[in-house]
From TrEMBL, chain A:
PROSITE patterns in UniProt: COX1
Keyword Electron transport: yes
Alphabetized InterPro entries for the sequence: Cyt_c_oxase-like_su1_dom, Cyt_c_oxase-like_su1_sf, Cyt_C_Oxase_1
Name of the molecule in the record: Cbb3-type cytochrome c oxidase subunit I
Region (Disordered): 564-583
Automatic annotation (TrEMBL), chain B:
Membrane topology, record value: Multi-pass membrane protein
Organism taxonomic ancestry: Bacteria, Bacillati, Bacillota, Bacilli, Bacillales
Family annotation (Pfam families): COX4_pro
Organism: Paenibacillus mendelii
Family membership: Belongs to the cytochrome c oxidase bacterial subunit 4 family.
Domain of life: Bacteria
Protein keywords: Cell membrane, Electron transport, Membrane, Oxidoreductase, Transmembrane, Transmembrane helix, Transport
Subcellular localization, as worded in the UniProt entry: Cell membrane
Protein name per UniProt: Cytochrome o ubiquinol oxidase subunit IV
Transmembrane regions listed in the UniProt entry: 28-47, 53-76, 88-109
Entries under NCBIfam families matching the protein: CyoD (TIGR02847)
């Protein structure tokens, strides 16, 4: 009996690597301390009522951001482990097998479990406030989206201590990801983790499209919307058309692995290249999904901190929407070398070059917005200034890669690695950091410390160039991606060492950000104005943090930068328009179903990963029961009475 | 939402006086009959070997497209939408994407020298 348990455990848990044992201990201690703290301070009920069951978009946004920062930590540690190995390739710091797992999880986590939730977090916090709404269109669905993402991410992350991590690269190309080449459970964790959180992403896309189209403040025409709202709309449109492709592709891969189908196998009429073709139909739009909102954030910040209206509003809208359209027609540039001939490659090379044009338009719009503006270099603006040169260089190396014949040289070399890190860190990460610094006072009611923020910014920015500029040259010197070791005679050692130093500089930058947050929570003054940056859009017209119903009376927004214009009128001595009398506010009720149902999905996914139907079936049954219960729940909303609104408003605005 | 004329919570659909009904008994009945007929035609045609080869393919595709249109008009009420017609726009964009996926994949894979 004991022997059997021991044998089972040695396969069930990942064993043999001291790094993993260290992680085991770390995870156990963290879980124990969370339980102890919650029990000691009697906070379980609070956690359940105020957070886990909340359908308030502001709280869901905060939970998204916390989760994504944890994932940033995990993905960042993965990156530093890889860089350490590459700086000392003969030290056997990471076994090749372990190295494969780490570059796979690094990629998946950074794109799907860091960038996406950080983006959704900002959508949640900003969009309803910015368009003058009281919540998103479907608050229950919103909560469900978050918990599906959360439990999907947990399922994926579990793989590194239980069962073994996926190791076939972040897009899991077959035949490597097929049962014949990856018999373990790692790839199944990959499929189920992404599928479960993918449903959540799709629902968020639908939710925000409806919110933006249907719930704008009276008077806010489409062409008066703030630019971040536009960028969210374009990103969500891309989501709802791209994510189903991912779901179907991974479902086919699952059928191959689970039921012995032959969609992408080498035998039985399957074709692995079809997978590559399909996954990039999602994969290419995906990079625009994550970067478009960053463009929106920069537009807001540039305009606010230059004290000027955004230059070229209409061209900006046109650029955003055309990018989300054209992003569906460039996918084959990820596999120019697959051998589809000159005609196919020429077509996709040209579409790729075309899509660079609207992006270039945007850069000029930001520059002209700053031109003759009164620029103040606060943290959000600093990240924006760091972004522009970084993204321009990254974009231009992208155009180099789009030249199909030349791509045969660059393909899968470190040149490519440097390129996409430059656009993803320089564009996406810098963009969301800028957004976090910008909207932080709206979320929590205080700014983040500027001095520590400057340290973090410069460490990240310098670290970035030190890390990735050498990689362009490594790529041209012939170093391919995903190698865990190389001989000294290749001459790659010095550049790799420099690159690793840069990686650690960024790591220190992240530590400064953590310190900055902790320090600011303790020492920063509360912002009582609700408008610490002298903002331009509606979210700055209400107190920070916003009350649960956001707007006591719905604002009128008849012009672009509505709040800025209102402030100008008040400065000129005009009285603000008389507010209509308060009315009871219709709000959605909290619900525990999203949390429980997503957990059931997690259980079902776990069962399928290990092919244990006795776990998978109860999990799926739980999902079905949750759906039934929700269908027969009629008490889903309530009204906040006028007295309570008056009291809340007096408490929030009384101190102003 | 009491104060929000152009918005509604998915959860609290009741109490909307402006919420007009979709379709009538007659239109649902017509839609139902049409979709049944359009299901039976290809089934019988193929199972009874009435058509073969290219002709069978054409019958299948034509009835499928007609079925799609019947469902959209009679059950999804695509023609009853107020302006701006977001549902129609989304549908058209979706069709463009589907066409791109199918035609693009066929084009790329038939040109693929390695796949043959």
């Amino acid at each position: 009996m004991f022997e059997k348990i021991k044998e089972f455990a040695s396969e069930f848990f990942v064993t043999g690597d001291p790094l993993i044992y260290g992680a085991d201990v770390g995870i156990a201690l963290t879980l124990i301390s969370i339980v102890v703290v919650l029990t000691y301070f009697k906070r379980w009920g609070w956690l359940w009522r105020e957070w886990l069951t909340s359908v308030d978009h502001k709280k869901i946004g905060i939970m998204y951001i916390i989760a994504s920062l944890l994932m940033l930590f995990r993905g960042g540690v993965d990156a530093l482990l890889m860089r350490t190995q590459l700086a000392m390739p003969d030290m056997q710091f990471l076994e090749p097998e372990h190295y494969n797992q780490i570059f796979t999880t690094h990629g998946v986590i950074m794109i799907l479990f860091m960038a996406m939730p950080l983006m959704f977090g900002l959508f949640n916090i900003v969009i309803p406030l910015q368009i003058g709404a009281r919540d998103v269109a479907y608050p229950f669905l919103n909560s469900l989206s978050f918990w599906l993402f959360f439990w999907g991410a947990m399922l994926f992350n579990m793989s590194f201590v239980i069962g073994g991590s996926p190791n076939a690269g972040w897009l899991a190309y077959p035949p490597l990801s097929e049962l014949s080449h990856s018999p373990g459970v790692g790839q199944d964790f990959y499929i189920w983790g992404i599928q479960i959180s993918g449903i959540g992403s799709l629902m968020t896309g639908i939710n925000f499209i409806v919110t933006i189209l249907k719930m704008r403040a009276p008077g806010m025409k489409l062409m008066k919307m703030p630019m971040f709202t536009w960028s969210t709309l374009s990103s969500c449109i891309t989501i709802i058309f791209a994510f189903p492709i991912l779901t179907v592709t991974l479902a086919l891969l699952f059928l191959d692995r689970y039921l012995g189908a032959h969609f992408f196998t080498l035998d039985g009429g399957g074709n692995p290249m079809m997978y590559i073709n399909l996954i990039w139909m999602w994969g290419h739009p995906e990079v625009y999904i994550v970067v478009l909102p960053a463009f929106g954030i920069f537009s807001e910040i540039v305009s606010t901190f230059s004290r000027k209206k955004l230059f070229g509003y209409k061209s900006m809208v046109f650029a955003l929407m055309s990018i989300s359209f054209f992003s569906f027609f460039t996918w084959a540039h990820h596999f120019f070398t697959m051998g589809s001939g000159a005609n196919v490659n020429a077509f996709f090379a040209i579409t790729t070059m075309i899509i660079a044009i609207p992006t270039g338009v945007k850069v000029f719009n930001w520059l002209f917005t700053m031109f003759r503006g009164r620029i103040s270099y606060k943290s959000p603006m600093l990240w924006t200034m760091g972004f522009i040169p970084c993204f321009v260089v990254g974009g231009m190396t992208g155009v180099l890669l789009s030249v199909a014949p030349a791509d045969f040289q660059f393909h899968n070399s470190y040149f490519l690695i440097a390129h996409f890190h430059q656009v993803l860190i320089g564009g996406v990460a810098f963009g969301y950091f800028a957004g976090l610094y910008y909207w932080w006072p709206k979320m929590f009611g205080f700014k983040l410390n500027e001095k520590l923020g400057k340290w973090a910014f410069w460490l990240w920015n310098i670290g970035f160039y030190v890390c990735f500029m050498p990689q362009y040259f490594l790529g041209l010197d012939g170093m391919t991606r995903r190698v865990s070791s190389y001989g000294w005679d290749m001459g790659w050692g010095p550049l790799n060492l420099v690159s690793t130093i840069g990686g650690f500089l960024m790591g220190i930058g992240f530590l400064f950000q953590v310190w900055q947050i902790a320090h600011s929570i303790k020492f920063m003054e509360r912002d009582t104005t609700g408008d610490p940056w002298n903002g331009r859009t509606l979210e700055w017209s209400i107190p920070s943090p916003a009350p649960v119903y956001n707007f006591a009376t719905l604002p009128q927004a008849t012009e672009q930068d509505a709040w800025w214009e209102e402030k100008q009128r008040r400065e000129q001595g005009q009285k603000p328009a008389a507010q209509p009398p308060l009315e009871p506010i219709h709000m959605p009720r909290n619900s525990g179903i999203p949390f429980i149902k997503s957990f059931c999905w997690f259980v079902a996914g776990f069962g399928f990963v290990f092919d244990w139907l006795w776990i998978a079936i109860p999990g799926l049954a739980g999902v079905a029961i949750c759906m039934l219960i929700r269908s027969f729940t009629y008490n889903t909303d309530y009204y906040i009475p006028v007295d309570e609104i008056k009291r809340t408003e007096a408490a929030l605005r009384g101190s102003v | 939402m009491a104060q929000q004329p152009n918005g509604s919570h998915g959860a609290g659909g009741h109490g909307h006086s402006s919420h007009k009904g979709h379709g009538s008994f007659k239109s649902y009945l017509i839609g139902f009959l049409l979709s049944i007929v359009l299901t039976i035609i290809p089934l019988v045609a193929i199972l009874k070997d009435l058509v073969e080869g290219t002709a069978a393919l054409v019958v299948l595709l034509v009835t499928a497209v007609l079925q799609f249109i019947v469902q959209l008009l009679f059950f999804m009420h695509l023609n009853e939408e107020d302006k701006p017609r977001y549902n129609l726009m989304t549908l058209i964009f979706g069709l463009v994407i589907v066409l791109t996926i199918v035609a693009g994949s066929i084009w790329i894979m038939t040109n693929n020298a390695v796949a043959h």
